[in-house]
Amino acid sequence: MTKRWSIARQLFALQVLVVTLLVAVGTTGAVLLARKDARNAAVEEVKAVAETIALSPAVVDGLHSSDPTAALQPWAEATRKATGTDFIVVMAPDRTRYTHPTTRLIGLPFAGNIDGALDGGTVVEEYRGSLGDSVRTVVAVFEPGTVSVIGLVSVGITTAAINRNLIAQLPVVATATGIALLLAAAGAWLLSRRLRRQTHGLGPAEMTRMYEYYDAVLHAVREGLVVVGRDGEVELINDEGRRLLGVLEEGPTDLPDEVAALISEQRPTVDEPVLVGDRTLVASRRETRFDGRLLGTVLTLRDHTELRALTGELDSVRGLTEALRAQAHEAANRLHTVLTMVELGRTDEAIELATAELALAQQLTDQVVGAVEEPALAALLLGKSAQAGERGVELTVDPSSRLEGGVEGAPLPARDLLTVVGNLVDNALEAVAGRDLPRKVEVLIRHADAEVLVRVRDNGPGLSPEQAAAAFRRGWSTKQGEGHGIGLSLVRQVAERYGGTYEISSPEDGGAVLTVRLPVPS
């Protein structure tokens, strides 16, 4: 199969062809102009020589002599050789030649136009005479002091002589043409070499096919792709990237602050969570290089909003499962204790112990269900209570809590309420972990005045003003390592989506109070 020419090679061949044609046309034009200039120069030369001879006293005296040929022929030939012309003919008004380079033509009539010269003018013409084609001029010789024409002078240069002079200049023209061609070819070669490096030697069909594949992949890939140049300007965002980032198709590309900050960081990033609007994205950043040269930065984005929500719910279910397993273990221990007491005949004490345990469990359930009618949120609080009990934390629900649910539904979507309450409680449980007893977490959830108030208080170490200001920022956490600093940022995301507020305060008696207010859409 014949190898197709690359774009660089095609461009080189095209440039050489175009330059060759231009140089050929230019050279032809230069030769034609030079030929015209040579003819004009010859005309001016023979005209000046003829007029000078016509005014010469030697010519007037020779015409008045008894033998004009004997008087004028030697002088005319000497003048012809001195001026470099091809012929000088002095003649009578009736065309009879007195002088001529070919002596056998002396005495014969002059061949050519003399009418204008007989009238006192100057005749300039190209004429085929006895010496061939020539450029000649004919002027009159006047009787001194009168306008009487006593003779005529014709001076000419043959076309062959003009062409010889022109041909003598051709080596210079040819050399200039060759140099121009060489310089043009060298420039075309350098340009094609640069283009070959930039196109990697690809041909038009290959580049077209590559562009088609490239465009198809960018539109079909399910990951968001952001390409940033070395100057920090966004070069490309594919369709999925625009959808995930909420970037419009038209106009300048302004990336969200979280994404712009991630791109500006001089470090590789792998699967780092980024909050953009109401989405949780996983971003990976890396620099791209070719032959050791930095090209820019590529950022890939995947939508993990649903996965994050499911992961949070799974964590809650897992925690609830662990708590229920522990509670089942504790219940088994208490059941064995009650059965043993019955076997020992201490029935009254066994009934009292079982009743007390049942009342304690029922009291917590009644308190949560009575305050929070939303079933999913009530289940979450019961699960968190069991989980808190396993950690040695006393989790209570403020008696003033009230959130409607049931058939009419909660004032806000259950998923958003679970996100806010679950993350605030988890944050409080983490805050009191490792503290001396008693460890307490109190939850208040109340729907009033067209807003839902969620307040979680703990008796942990609290936060400094600087920590409180940064607590809701993505990635901030009091714990070391990856995977932290997401919960409160999700809370902030929900609050901002509803146009609500979020804050952290530190009471004088210690601990921290996290408060979120979510307006209820009308």
TrEMBL record:
It catalyses: ATP + protein L-histidine = ADP + protein N-phospho-L-histidine. It comes from the Bacteria. InterPro entries: HATPase_C_sf (IPR036890), HATPase_dom (IPR003594), His_kinase_dom (IPR005467), sCache_3 (IPR033463), Sensor-like_sf (IPR029151), Sig_transdc_His_kin-like_C (IPR004358), Sig_transdc_His_kin_SpoOB (IPR016120). Keywords: ATP-binding, Cell membrane, Kinase, Membrane, Nucleotide-binding, Phosphoprotein, Transferase, Transmembrane, Transmembrane helix, Two-component regulatory system. It holds the Pfam family HATPase_c. Its EC number is 2.7.13.3. It is found in: Cell membrane. One of its GO terms (molecular function) is phosphorelay sensor kinase activity. It is a multi-pass membrane protein. The chain crosses the membrane at residues 12-34, 138-162, 168-191. Residues 298-522 form the Histidine kinase domain. GO terms for cellular component: plasma membrane. Coiled coil: none annotated. Gene3D superfamilies: Histidine kinase-like ATPase, C-terminal domain, PAS domain. This is histidine kinase.
